[in-house]
């Protein structure tokens, strides 16, 4: 029987969306303390998320024990799946359990300062939203839907926890985005229902992308890799309200959406 016709498995090239854990220090004690500060209050937030350890922000003369970083992430219920490193770092960053991977999104930062129209949030050195990291050759998750072509994609059913939808253009969602669900688009995202999960727009660095939502109750919102969570509660002027979310000077702006 031809391997291509095998009913038991397939090997196909593919891309997986993941988070980058961007290492900016060699002080593991400080790193662990920051992880604890960030996630002890919300231990389920990044639980079971796949992350790639990104070493590229380290100074050229500094090294970090990658194996210890990986074990630290596992202790916080994240799953290290690869290492992102520049050529000079590869000689010391090799770890048998993790492959080197290439990141399609070269620029992924978070908004560290409060912006007009947005609630304050704390700075962090921990996972940053990233897009299209080339992780491995294999099938995408069975509950992941991907659109074809740079056209608007419309989803007319609710998305339950664990489901993910990806659009190469704009994405329109007509049903509830539940806690634990994720909507991702290279363009804008329009949600005509409550957003309670995660919404990531402009994932290939499109700083002009926006998120429109008729009821904002999110776990995470992100545009072009600049993201915020709701550890600090959203203000009453936007929580549960119709809003638009955009970038201004690399800060997320959350504004009430005037529908009349």
Mean pLDDT: 78
Give me the secondary-structure category.
mainly beta
> What is the helix content?
10-25%
Largest sheet, in brief, is: 6 strands, mixed
- SSE order, as H and E? EHEHEHEEEEEEEEEEEEEEE
Gyration radius from CA atoms, angstroms: 19 Å
> What's the β-strand tally?
18
Estimate what percentage of residues fall within beta strands.
25-35%
Widest sheet: strand ordering: 7-9-11-13-15-16
CA(first)-CA(last) distance: 64 Å
Shape: globular
Characterize the quaternary organization of these chains. single chain
Question: Which regions contain 5 or more consecutive residues with pLDDT less than 50?
Answer: 105-148
Number of helices: 3
Question: What does this 3D model show about the protein?
Answer:
The chain has 260 residues and is mainly β. Helix content is 10%, strand content 29%. The protein is built from three helices and 18 strands. It has helices at 28-39, 66-75, 90-93, and strands at residues 19-22, 50-54, 79-84, 102-103, 128-129, 133-134, 144-146, 153-155, 164-167, 171-173, 182-185, 189-195, 198-201, 211-216, 220-223, 226-229, 243-248, 251-256. The chain has a six-stranded mixed β-sheet, with no helix packed on it. Helix 2 links the parallel strand 2 and strand 3 (79-84). The chain is globular, with a radius of gyration of 19 Å.
In terms of topology, how is this protein built?
Layout: E1 19-22, H1 28-39, E2 50-54, H2 66-75, E3 79-84, H3 90-93, E4 102-103, E5 128-129, E6 133-134, E7 144-146, E8 153-155, E9 164-167, E10 171-173, E11 182-185, E12 189-195, E13 198-201, E14 211-216, E15 220-223, E16 226-229, E17 243-248, E18 251-256
Parallel strand pairs: 1-2, 2-3, 7-9, 8-10, 9-11, 10-12, 11-13, 12-14, 13-15
Antiparallel strand pairs: 1-5, 4-6, 14-17, 15-16, 17-18
Family: Belongs to the MinC family.
Organism: Mycetohabitans rhizoxinica
Pfam families: MinC_C, MinC_N
């Amino acid at each position: 029987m031809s391997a291509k016709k095998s009913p038991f498995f397939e090997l196909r090239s593919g891309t997986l969306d993941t988070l980058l854990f961007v290492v900016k220090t060699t002080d593991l004690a400080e790193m662990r303390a920051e992880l604890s500060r960030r996630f002890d209050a919300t231990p389920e937030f990044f639980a079971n998320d796949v992350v790639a350890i990104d070493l590229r922000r380290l100074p050229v003369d500094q090294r970090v024990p990658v194996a210890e970083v990986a074990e630290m992430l596992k202790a916080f219920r994240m799953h290290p799946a690869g290492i992102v490193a520049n050529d000079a770092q590869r000689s010391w960053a090799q770890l048998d359990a993790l492959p080197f991977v290439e990141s399609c999104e070269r620029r992924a930062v978070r908004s560290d300062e409060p912006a007009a129209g947005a609630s304050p949030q704390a700075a962090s050195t921990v996972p940053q939203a990233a897009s299209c990291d080339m992780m491995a050759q294999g099938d995408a998750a069975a509950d992941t839907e991907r659109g074809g072509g740079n056209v608007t994609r419309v989803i007319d059913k609710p998305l339950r926890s664990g489901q993910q939808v990806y659009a190469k253009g704009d994405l329109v969602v007509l049903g509830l985005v539940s806690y634990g669900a994720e909507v991702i688009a290279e363009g804008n995202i329009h949600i005509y229902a409550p957003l309670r999960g995660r919404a990531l727009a402009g994932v290939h660095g499109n700083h002009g992308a926006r998120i429109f939502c008729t009821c904002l109750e999110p776990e995470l919102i992100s545009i072009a890799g600049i993201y915020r969570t709701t550890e600090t509660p959203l203000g009453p002027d936007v929580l549960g309200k119709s809003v638009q979310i955009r970038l201004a000077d690399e800060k997320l702006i959350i504004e009430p959406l005037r529908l009349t």
